[in-house]
């Protein structure tokens, strides 16, 4: 692509990349042009080589040097750091017409778009895409061949979103620690992208055995997971699911378990944490966070209590200068247009507060109502919490817990560990009693607008019993 711009006579380009060395190494060293690189530490050298030809470290002098050349391309590394200087700005403006007439070009290699208003109409921005799967697979060949270690196609897919340098480091660590190309090592190092951004969080997925019931939702996620498997490229790529229901019914826990089903990292996107005090800061953080998620790929993006995150979207122009509305717009575009394998799992307690645009077809693949647990689900939850807290709650007790949520049954087990079962039972007031009207209203809304996630009352218990003997002690409950 760069060669096309050079043929067209563009005098100033900006290559947007986090990999300056790769940008230089992938240059098309063809045609009539001579390629040189400049940095403020060494000076000017021939591109692709380390020997300095001109000890010109000052950016203004480097720009003036280009004005004296013909058919020359100068890669200026980190020139954006000097664009606040009036001398640099004037030097670029003075050289534009001369470079164009002599077939030369100034290529600024930068990780960010940081162009002064005086130069915005001069520079054309070009994105250098991150390495694709084939390039990352070839990198494994280069590293593994001397050690007689075969490359791993799955490991190469998981490395997408990494720079070539980051992928090489991940592969090298994998070879040192595992003696093969380990997908797990790559995933762990890949999560460093999230930590370094400061905008997102990496959470540990929950084991599926910690989720009591919700067989219909589990079946849905398992069947949709097939679309992400190799060889199933003909299947449409699922985008995500919205879970609505009363508090404590296991919506968040099921989002965490979805990452276990897919075998992907779990990334939490906290909309509230992205909001900033400066004008445009919130929208910029939202764009950056969504860009990181999309480049990360093969992950579950978890958003909790979506209706609170985007509360007041309609009044955003009057209350916060339109920041919430702008963030909401970027989020909707991401839901609709993202192309990487990202599965979005969002929860909401009060669906009536969600903007209607959120539930439009094409944003989420399905909307599920996670209702209060049915009798088979309550029995399953009793088994899980009894084992976890070392108490003995009879399975027959499930019939007395009609209208109790999973979190309330877990609290019952906790209280039973200190007091008697009956005393613990009478000390807890379930939400189905205090929020009866709200829960009934949600059920009426979902009757024709959402799918039911719960296990039916009449489903045989043996068909969906979950064993926990071989799994580590889970940390949550529906």
Question: Would you mind describing this structure in some detail?
Answer:
- The protein has helices at 2-7, 20-25, 59-67, 86-102, 133-144, 153-158, 164-178, 183-197, 215-224, 251-262, 271-274, 281-296, 306-309, 316-319, 323-337, 375-389, 406-416, 421-427, 431-434, 436-446, and strands spanning 12-16, 34-39, 43-46, 52-54, 72-77, 105-110, 124-127, 201-203, 240-244, 266-268, 299-303, 342-348, 366-369, 451-452.
- It is α/β, with parallel strands linked by helices and 478 residues long.
- The strands form 2 sheets. A 7-stranded mixed beta sheet has the order 4-3-2-5-6-1-7. A 7-stranded mixed beta sheet has the order 8-10-11-12-9-13-14.
- The longest helix has 17 residues, at 86-102.
- The chain is elongated.
- The two termini are 52 Å apart.
- Mean pLDDT is 86; it is low at 462-478.
- GO terms for molecular function: ATP binding; ATP hydrolysis activity.
- Keywords: ATP-binding, Nucleotide-binding.
- Belongs to the AAA ATPase family. Highly divergent.
- Residues 451-478 are annotated as: Disordered.
